[in-house]
Please model this.
Amino acid sequence: MTSTIEAPRSPYSRSTKKSGVNWEKWGWIYMRVSGVVLVVLIFGHLFVNLWVGEGVSALNFAFVAGKLTDPFWMVWDILMLWLALIHGGNGMRTLVNDYATSRISRGILKIAILVSVVALIVLGTLVVFTFDPCPAGAPADLVASFCKSL
Amino acid sequence: MPQTAGTLDSQQKTTSRRPAGTLYRGNTGMWSWVLHRITGVAIFFFLLVHILDTALVRVSPEAYNAVISQYQTPIMGLGEVALVGAIVFHAFNGLRIILIDFWNAKYQRVLFYVVIGLWVVTMLGFVPRHLINVFSH
Model:
């Protein structure tokens, strides 16, 4: 039995589909570019939320309100949200391609990943841009101190 | 498929030897790859939960505080050690993968030990302080 072994490192291509864009290559590049940015974003996130001051014990609504009213942290969190979910979703897609053996299970799992990623990106983006740090009627001891001056 | 004794012998000889000339089979290359996948999946599922719990700031201060106080319990405090450990490994090993791809693959083994070393240093900086925060409140 003879079989043809392709030259190593030759790019994967579907012979039947004539697509100009090598999406797998761009996915590969995305994982590396977003990965480097995410190392900075997530290490900064963990440092500020878990290491500075009293760490996890200091987290509450007023803490988050202080961050989500600061444009710096809004941009930081939005970037983290989009980059991390797409990075994670694409990583899960790789695992599904490797371990799900039937075409149907691969399809179902990839649709589930896509739906989760899109839903959480939409939800997270809406939360950051529609956040109200001083909701009407909220107890004064639960909201940030700057709500008093309103 | 019938095999003669000769081919079986040579096959046994081949498989009994350590794999060579590959980054990903056996030894550090394979184990870093396995750990990268396991930590990646764990972080992905935490991320899904973490976005949902943070979204509670849009519901009410009480709802958000009720859930975030669960993160401050001793058991979840230990879970956060595992989570940060997974994230730090995935981050440093991801940078190692980038260096292997764009710089030089022949340093992959020594880079793996650099990853382990940086992981230990980072965790020494985080774990004691975090555990004090969790257990003293």
